[in-house]
Write a structure and sequence with these properties.
The chain has 70 residues and is α+β, with helices and mostly antiparallel strands. It has helices at residues 15-25, 44-66; strands spanning 9-10, 29-34, 37-43. The longest helix has 23 residues, at 44-66. Residues 2-59 form the CBS domain.
């Protein structure tokens, strides 16, 4: 099903804003625009992968710190 009132984010918006819009509007995809022109389509799986990569990086840093390597 498509909607006529499309929710978009600008390329300068944060991931947090994107997540908020997805959650508030119960959508899984949001077009990304640059000066009003569409440039990308971000899905909830893209956001999830991004968050997982951040968490993995933090875990690696913590392991290095605990083992004395950082």
């Amino acid at each position: 099903m498509m909607t006529k009132d499309v929710i978009t984010c600008e390329v300068t918006d944060t991931v947090q804003r994107l997540e908020l819009l997805m959650t508030q509007n119960n959508v899984r995809h949001i077009p990304i625009t640059d000066a009003g022109a569409p440039v990308a389509l971000i899905s909830v799986i893209d956001v999830t992968r991004y968050r997982l990569s951040l968490a993995e990086g933090e875990m690696s840093q913590m392991r290095d710190f605990v083992s004395g390597g950082g």
